[in-house]
Amino acid sequence: MLYIEENKKVELMNSLNIPSLLAPYFDTFYNPDVLDVMYILVNNRLSAEEISKKLGYEAFDKIDKLYKDAIINKTSEDNAVKYELSTLFTRVNLMATFQREVWENIPDEIRKKISEWHFGEFLDRKKKLDLSDISKNQNSIVPLNEAIDYLMSSDEDIYIIPCDCKSTSENCNHSKNTCITLGKSKAPSIERGYGRKISKEEAIVILNDADKEGLIHTIESHAICNCCTCCCYPMRASKELGLETVWPKVKYVVSIDEDKCVGCGLCSNKCQRNVFSLENRKVNMNYDSCVGCGVCVNACPKEALSLMPLGKS
Ligand code: SF4
Ligand code: SF4
Ligand code: SF4
Question: What atom in ligand 1 is closest to the CA of residue 164?
Fold first, then answer.
C-alpha cells in the first residue's frame, strides 16, 4: 500500500475540482490507499499495464476496484482498454446509490449539502446545453400500460438498479429499487458490475408496484424510470429551466367524469402534482399541473378518471 505526499494530494484534489464543502470528506470518497493510482492518471489515460509499470507493482486488482467504485473510467483507445480519472460527480452518484453504508456515515446535514451541490452540477451541465436539444430527447411521461408496452417491445436483457436521484437527494421515502434498464451496456453502473438481471415478469411487477405507489413512469432510450417529483433530477431541472411539459415530454392530461366521482380522495393521495383538491367530497382540478402520468386513473375505484391526449382534449 503506497500513500502519496501531501503536495501531490493537493494537486489531485485541484484536478478533481473538489469544492471546499467536500474537502473534509475527501478520504471518505477516495481512500488514501488508492491515491497513488489516481495521481498517475491526472491528465493521463493509461492501460493497466502502464499504470502498474509506473507504480512499480502489479495494480490490476486495485484498478478493477477503482473502476467498480467509479473512481476511474474505462475507455478504449486503438482497441486497447485505457483508464482515466472519473469525476467527483460520478463518484458521489455511485457511492450514494450503491455504497449506502459509506454514504450514510457522512452526517445528515453534510449529505444534504453534498446532494445540493450534486444537483447543482447536474443543472449547470444542462444549462450549458442548447435548451432545444434537451427537449428533443426521447424522455416521456407515460401511463403504466405504455410503460409495460415499451418493456414488452424490447429484446434487450433487463436490469434493475436503484434510483440514483432518490439515493442522492433523499427527499422522500419512496421506493428506490425502481430503475429498469434495457441492455447491459446502457447504464454505466451495470457495466461496473452493479444491478440485477430480471425477467420481464419481475419488471412488470416492479412497474405495477410503482404505479400503486404513485410514482411517475418515464421512458427514454433503453430505460424505464419510476420517479418522484421531489428527487428526480430531470424533473427538478426541467422546472428550473422552464422546460416542464417538454422534458420529460408530457403527452396526456387527466379528465374527470364528475357523474362517476364519489369524492373518495384516492386520486388525490396518489397524485404527486397536487392536481386534485377535495372540498365536501367534491373534487376540484388544477389541470395545469397535470403531467398525464395516469396513476390517478388506475387508483380511482369508480373509473371516473381517464387520460386525454394533449392537443386533442
Ligand atoms: S429519473 Fe426517476 S427513477 Fe430514474 S433515477 Fe431519476 S428519479 Fe430515479
Ligand atoms: S379516486 Fe375517483 S372517485 Fe375517488 S375522488 Fe378521485 S376521481 Fe373521485
Ligand atoms: S392528475 Fe395528472 S399528474 Fe396527477 S396523478 Fe393524475 S395524471 Fe398524474
Answer: 5
